[in-house]
Predict the 3D structure of the following.
Amino acid sequence: MGSRRRNDQRSALGRAAERRALLWLKAEGLTFVAQNARCRYGEIDLVMRDGRTLVFVEVRCRNGHARSRAVHTVRADKQAKLIRSASVFLARHRRYSGLAVRFDVVGYDGDPDTGVRPEWIRDAFRA
């Protein structure tokens, strides 16, 4: 299988995971703020509100054959990019400056469209 085809499959799986994570988090009581918030440092998959807390969510999806769980793939370098991206988001959207901030990770170990339940780590890392 060529790398382009693999990347297309991964991106389709990633889009499905983001879509499912958004619906799932809303069902858990969070309120949607933004999706795929981009800046020069990277992209934040989902921005949600949980009461007086602004939640930056990284969504991960791995096939069911991976050695490690999806939620454990957000390493220090990715965390640093997310923190910088969140700073840019807050600078651009000052109306959220009075809220507490949290970084969550939602992971799917398998295709989210087949009913795989997400794993949600609240406050997965700190800025």
The radius of gyration is 15 Å.
